[in-house]
Each structure stands twice: as structure tokens, then as C-alpha cells.
Inverse folding.
């Protein structure tokens, strides 16, 4: 019996399309996969990475930051490839299914090989898979709607974003736990996201008969969308996209610099006030798990913004999409200003100790380690084998000598010394330095502010990009939107590469780093206000007649 042909255009209905639950379910599982993997990358690179002999081969904080943002940038750059082949040749469904398999293979490689080679190969496969499907999935959501039910688009894109963050919330709690627990480790921590990506692929396949399969328009029709009135609309839209680059540069540092910062803060939460809890009851999440605050806040704040804040602001002034984005830019700058103040407190309560190792032949190597002021109940003295950091450079018994080259905060210590033969450091903190670490609650405040900005910028821009794109080039325009994430992460990676000094110090040390990005975001927000005030909105909705809605 012949199979039933797929629908290729939205039906004339004012109801919710039948394929939406499958897309939302697929997105929740896929985002669990991506963010679960991404949540542990920084800690994995700086604490768990090994060479083929099983010896520690970890990265420095700056190196890991550069690596992560290069990976994220490459992922979003590949969106342009997926968008092009989707719109011009294969259609969205075929691209999503094919590249989802590549995506699963990337997770498999990360799960079985915890060396730098395995890391590189696994991430390259995920770059191709995740990047290629990104513009197709979000455009596929919009394709399910026609002129009569297009009024449901804002609600569905909000639920689409809700599913993204539901998956991200669960994964950023679970995968750091698997990584830290010696019963599981990196293999399970990376394997679980792989299982969820396989589940996402199956869920999407199950919805194939419910979807609207908008066919590829062909290369000639695709090319025409960049000419005439459509071409001018795209040019104006790309100008708006340019301002999103700075936003993503700041936002995606929650997976790198904010993780590093959380590692130097007091993360204990007192639970003694709970019924039946003992006086010493507390929990202490890992620095990677703190990232779960963002998706959790998304789940809480989306309804509050949609049904509370937005209607209130709309009574005061016309709250257009571009005005939401502009307000979000200023709020983003405020979030990073909070992180700058936090970093000032972190620097006052910790010290970065740099060790210089000199081999018998005179060659030198530098490594550094952070010493945090002790908390109540912790010993004022600590002994740390920093000579082990040089295991890849100098074999045991090689005759290397060790010396403390730099102590960024001498006021913390009563005594700080090193055994020149072994590299073992003995540190004794001053008694008045106890409990100086800033509490993680301050970073959670920064997360509340940044998440509020994300709702105003990211969700709004996602819907805006789809509606402003000509019907013949929905996927490619969504990929151009995603390219803003590429350039944002590329900018962050470039800054971190530039600021590294040969002696391990930074040109933007401490709070200066965060103030630099705060200033960049504030300037971007001011410039955006002027450009957005002159933008002319013109919306394109899929349908039998490809509805063109122009607004003043």
C-alpha cells in the first residue's frame, strides 16, 4: 500500500499544528544532549583531560576558555551550511534527520576517548551535527503555521524556548554529578547526553507524518530571495543581527568564565533551617551545576514576562520586538557589571600562585594554581603537590627545580613556601582570612539579571528573524541569525587569546576582564537604539499564497 504523501503547505486552520508536540519533545531531548555536554566541558578540560598514557594533560583556564568558545563559534558557523542545503536542495526534515546521526556519533566519541584527540574528534562531529540542524529546527517550527494560525507563533516560540531550557536545566544538574562521581566519570557524563540525542532523533522521526514538509525551493528560487525587495529586507535584517554579536559574546561566557568564577566562591547552602535537618546540614553544588540556574530561571520567568511584565510595559509604551531587544541589551550590561563586582571580591579572597620549573638543561615551564581562603571548619594549613602539574614536561627524577614565581595576593598567607626539589607547596593562611569568599548567591543574582536579558533578546530575536525572512530562505536566514552566536564566541575566543601573556598572566586580569565586556555591551546597546528606531518591519508568513504582512 502506498504511503500517505506528506503535506507541503500549512492547512487553513486557526488551531495548533499537530507536529508541534514532536518538535518540542525533540528539542527538549536535543538540548539536554548539547547543554549537558557543554556544561562539563570547562571542568573536563581543566581537571580530567589525559593523554594516551592516562597521565593528566589538562588545559589552563584561558586555554579552555578559548577552546570552548571556538567550539561554540564553529557550531553556529555550520548553521549556514545546514540552512543553505535545506532551502536550496534537500528540505529541512531530511537535513535534520541525516545530521542528527552525525550528532550522535560525536557524543559517542567523547564518551569513549578522554584524550585531546578524542575531544577534538568528538567536538568536530558535534559541530557539524548540532550546527547543521540548528537553523532547520527553528525554521521548521515556523513552517507549521499559515496565515490563520500565525497569531500562535509567539506562544509556540516561547514554548519552543521553554523546551530548550527544560532539557538544559536537567542536563546541567545531572552531567556534572556524573563527571564528579568516581563511579561514573567522563565516560558516563558524556554518554548520557548521547543517549538523549538518540532519543531526540527517534521522537522527531515519529512525528514525520504530522509535519508540514515545506520542500526545498531550488537553487534558482533560493537565489532570487536575495534580490529586489526581499534582498533589501535581508540587508536591513542583517544590520539588526550585527548587534546581537556582543550579546552572545557575553551570554555564552556562563559556560566558561562564570564557571571559573563559581569555582572560587562559597557554594554551600545552609539547610539547618529545614524541619528534621541537623545543625550542620548543607548542600554544595559544583561550579558546573550552577549553570542550571539559567534554564531554571527561564522556566520561571517566561510566564512572568509573557503574562505580567510585557502587558504592563505595553500599557506604558508600544512594546515592539526591537524595543524588547534594546532593553535586553542594557540589562545584559548590568548582569556583567554584577559579575565584575563579584570578581573584585574573589580576587581579595584568593591568590593565584605561579610555579616556575627549571629542567637540568635550563628549559623552563610555568604552571599556576588557585589558593582560596579557608571556610569555617577548614584547616588554615594546606599542602599541595604542584610539581605533579609538570608530569608531562619532566619525568620523575629528571632533576628539575621548582620556585614560586608569583603570588597574586600575599596578604592571604602567614607563610607560603615550596620544596625546590619536588614542587610541593606548603601554605598557611592568616586566621583573619577565614570565610572571605563571596557567596554564590551573588552570582545567582547575576544569573537572574542575565536570564531576564536573554528572554528579552534571544526569544524575541528568534521569532523576529523568522517572520522577517522571505519564505524562500527561512532556514538560511535563521542560520544568519545563528551566525551572530558564531561571531560572538569568536570575539570572546579572540579576546582570551590576545590577553594571554607568556608568563601566564593576563592583560585583562581580575575584574578588568568583566568591565571590558560590560563596556562593550553598553556601547552596543546605545548604538542599537538609533538603528532600531529607523527599521521598517515587514513580515513573511508561510501559506498557500506566501502571505506578506507589512507593518509601519
Amino acid at each position: 500500500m502506498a504511503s500517505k504523501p506528506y503535506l507541503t503547505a500549512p492547512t487553513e486552520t486557526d488551531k495548533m499544528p499537530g507536529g508541534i508536540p514532536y518538535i518540542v519533545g525533540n528539542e527538549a531531548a536535543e538540548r539536554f544532549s548539547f547543554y549537558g555536554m557543554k556544561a562539563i566541558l570547562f571542568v573536563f578540560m581543566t581537571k580530567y583531560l589525559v593523554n594516551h598514557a592516562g597521565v593528566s594533560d589538562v588545559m589552563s583556564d584561558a586555554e579552555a576558555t578559548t577552546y570552548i568558545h571556538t567550539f561554540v563559534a564553529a557550531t553556529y558557523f555550520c548553521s549556514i551550511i545546514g540552512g543553505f542545503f535545506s532551502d536550496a536542495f534537500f528540505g529541512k526534515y531530511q537535513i535534520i534527520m541525516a545530521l542528527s546521526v552525525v550528532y550522535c556519533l560525536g557524543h559517542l566519541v567523547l564518551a569513549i576517548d578522554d584524550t585531546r584527540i578524542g575531544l577534538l574528534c568528538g567536538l568536530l562531529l558535534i559541530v557539524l551535527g548540532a550546527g547543521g540542524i540548528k537553523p532547520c529546527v527553528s525554521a521548521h517550527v515556523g513552517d507549521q503555521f499559515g496565515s490563520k494560525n500565525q497569531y500562535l507563533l509567539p506562544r509556540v516560540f516561547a514554548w519552543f524556548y521553554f523546551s530548550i531550557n527544560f532539557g538544559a536545566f536537567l542536563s546541567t544538574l545531572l552531567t556534572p554529578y556524573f563527571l564528579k562521581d568516581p563511579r561514573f566519570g567522563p565516560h558516563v557524563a558524556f554518554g548520557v547526553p548521547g543517549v538523549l540525542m538518540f532519543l531526540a532523533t527517534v521522537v522527531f522521526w515519529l512525528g514525520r507524518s504530522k509535519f508540514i514538509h515545506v520542500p526545498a525551493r531550488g537553487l534558482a528560487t533560493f537565489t532570487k530571495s536575495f534580490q529586489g525587495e526581499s534582498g533589501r529586507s535581508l540587508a536591513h535584517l542583517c544590520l539588526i543581527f550585527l548587534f546581537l554579536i556582543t550579546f552572545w559574546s557575553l551570554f555564552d561566557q556562563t559556560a566558561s568564565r562564570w564557571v571559573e568564577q563559581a569555582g572560587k566562591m562559597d557554594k554551600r547552602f545552609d539547610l539547618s533551617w529545614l524541619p528534621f535537618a541537623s545543625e550542620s546540614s548543607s548542600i554544595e553544588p559544583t561550579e558546573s551545576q550552577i549553570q542550571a540556574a539559567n534554564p531554571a530561571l527561564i522556566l520561571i520567568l517566561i510566564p512572568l514576562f509573557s503574562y505580567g511584565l510585557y502587558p504592563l510595559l505595553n500599557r506604558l509604551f508600544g512594546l515592539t520586538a526591537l524595543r524588547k531587544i534594546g532593553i535586553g541589551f542594557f540589562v545584559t550590561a548590568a548582569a556583567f557589571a554584577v559579575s565584575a563586582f563579584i570578581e573584585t571580591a574573589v580576587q581579595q579572597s584568593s591568590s593565584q600562585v605561579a610555579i616556575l620549573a627549571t629542567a637540568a638543561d635550563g628549559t623552563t615551564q610555568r604552571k599556576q594554581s588557585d589558593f582560596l581562603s579557608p571556610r569555617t571548619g577548614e584547616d588554615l594549613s594546606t599542602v599541595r603537590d604542584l610539581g605533579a602539574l609538570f608530569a608531562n614536561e619532566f619525568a620523575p627524577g629528571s632533576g628539575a627545580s621548582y620556585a614560586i614565581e608569583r603570588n597574586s595576593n600575599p596578604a592571604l598567607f602567614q607563610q607560603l613556601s615550596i620544596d625546590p626539589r619536588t614542587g610541593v607547596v606548603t601554605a598557611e593562611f592568616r586566621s583573619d582570612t577565614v570565610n572571605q569568599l563571596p557567596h554564590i548567591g551573588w552570582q545567582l543574582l547575576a544569573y537572574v539579571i542575565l536570564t531576564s536579558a536573554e528572554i528579552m533578546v534571544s526569544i524575541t530575536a528568534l521569532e523576529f528573524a523568522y517572520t522577517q525572512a522571505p519564505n524562500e530562505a527561512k532556514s538560511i536566514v535563521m542560520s544568519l541569525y545563528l551566525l551572530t552566536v558564531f561571531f560572538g564566541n569568536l570575539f570572546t575566543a579572540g579576546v582570551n587569546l590576545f590577553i594571554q601573556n607568556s608568563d601566564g598572566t593576563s592583560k585583562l586580569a581580575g575584574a578588568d576582564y568583566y568591565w571590558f565586556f560590560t563596556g562593550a555591551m553598553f556601547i552596543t546597546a546605545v548604538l542599537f537604539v538609533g538603528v532600531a528606531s529607523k527599521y521598517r518591519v515587514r513580515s513573511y508568513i508561510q501559506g498557500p499564497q506566501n502571505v506578506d504582512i507589512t507593518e509601519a
Remarks:
- The two ends are 52 Å apart (CA to CA).
- The chain has 15 helices and ten strands.
- The first helix runs from residue 20 to 48.
- The longest strand covers residues 350-358.
